[in-house]
Every structure is written in structure tokens, then in C-alpha cells.
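COURSE: Structural Biology Practicum
ASSIGNMENT: Worksheet 4, Part C
STUDENT ID: 0417
INSTRUCTIONS: Below are two proteins. For each, the amino acid sequence is given first, followed by its C-alpha cell string. Answer the questions at the end about the second protein only.

PROTEIN I
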Amino acid sequence: MKRATSIVFAASALTAACTPYSETVGAAAPLGTVWELETVNGLPAASRMTLTFLANGKLQGLLPCNSYTGEQSAPLPWFEIEKLAVTLRSCPALPDEQSYLAILKSSDYAEVAGDSLLLSDVDENSLYFVRRGNG
């Protein structure tokens, strides 16, 4: 009987390890926290860009030229941007914005650890953010 209980426990632990969390990245990261981009694909960010998770799966951010809004409702560790809307101003940092937004849209994995947030995709593109405070 003890061995059967151990097998059931081990199977339950394995299933739990493969099951997404019920909370989203926005719920795991304190709402209203401003996450500032530190690196893009492991290289220092060329421009200041932010990401902030709001209530009800909403998000917003600031870019050098523009701002953006969207929604994210996938449970951790998954990440999926929906309804992304970006203002249409132009400036010299526009290529940096376009690169950031492309990786943000392709990101499908999120990890929150203390003051760090990592978003990445299957092609190993990544956006690494650090917590800078509340907006």
C-alpha cells in the first residue's frame, strides 16, 4: 500500500510540474509595476521601453516615440499578447521600437522572479525587464 501511495504522489507531482499556473504574468507581477527593458536578446536595450500590467489582463507600455496597450490572459508560464494597439508617431528610435514590438508579439513564455521579468519565444528571442517601481 505504501508503494502504491508513493507512485500516486509521484505521478501527481509530475502532472503538477507540467500544468500551467492558474494566474497570469500580470497577476504574478504586482499590478501597476513598471517593468523597464534591460536587454533584448541578451544585449543592452538601445532605448528606454516599459511594460506595465493592469487589472483584468490589460497592459500598457511606453516606447521612445510611442505608447502601446494590449491584453494578456494566458496562464503562467505562457504569454500571449492580444489586441495590441500602438500610437503612430515617428522618431529616430523607431527601428528599436519595431524590434521590441516584434519580440513582444512573438513571446509565448513568461517568467517572473523577484524584480525580474523575462519574456521569450521559441526562436530564443528574449526581452528582459527589471522592476522600476509603480506607475
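PROTEIN II
(use this one for the questions)
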Amino acid sequence: MKRIILFLFASLIVYATFFTEKDRLDREVKRLCAIDGGIKVYESVKLPAERFDQYGQISIPYKKNVKARDEYYYESSTVYLIRGNPEMWRSHYRVYRVYDSKFLGESVGYARVGGDIPGPWHSSSYSCPDKVDITDLKKQIFVEN
């Protein structure tokens, strides 16, 4: 009897580890990242050192907040591929030059949150690739002259 209970318990652990919706979505996130995830720079921009802050960043506004003096702006979108628990989404950032609307670069990332056993703890998450938010994209497009 002990062997049967032990076998059932081990089977449950194997099933929970390899065949849950959370793990299936993690594999899907990884597959989608391999297809189009990451940063793509179409044109680098050399700027003088005074354009960068103490952290080596350049400040550019979101498209809706562009003012007449701004030279660059970014757009972003988040598309939810699955809603609820778990959730999965695609994040996409694009940077443009104002005067000619030139598309300078983009970043795409995928993420999954949730799908865990309910409890008082935070939900687990998985995302890829690393470093694909707007800050990382700006670091690759804008270089110090």
C-alpha cells in the first residue's frame, strides 16, 4: 500500500512539474521569443555627451507627449495573448526620429504571469528575452559621440 501511495505522489509531482498550463505557456513564451523577441536597431544615433544623464540615458517622450523641440519619440504596445490566470502577453517598443518619422529600432518581449497553485505568495512569472524594455532599446540606439 505504501508503494502505491508513493507512486501516486511521485506521479503527481511529475505531472505538476511537466504538464501544467504554466509550463506549457513558458515553452510557448520561449518559442515566440526565438521567432521575433529581442532588440533590432535599424539606425544608430550618435549624440554629444551632454544629451545623456548621469546614468548614460537619453530622455525621449512617448508619442502623445512630443513637443516641438523633441527630436525623437517612442511608441509602445502590449497585446495580451491570454487573459486571466495565467496571463501571457507581447510587449513591443518602437523608437522614431521626429523630423522624418524614421523608424530607428524596436524591441519585442514576451511574458507569462500566474498559473500557480493559489496561496498567499506572489505569482510566478517568466519572460524573455532579458533587457528588452524602452531603457535597453534607447541604450542600443543612442550612443555617445
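ANSWER KEY EXCERPT:
Q1: The chain has a mean pLDDT of 91.
Q2: The chain has one domain: 22-144.
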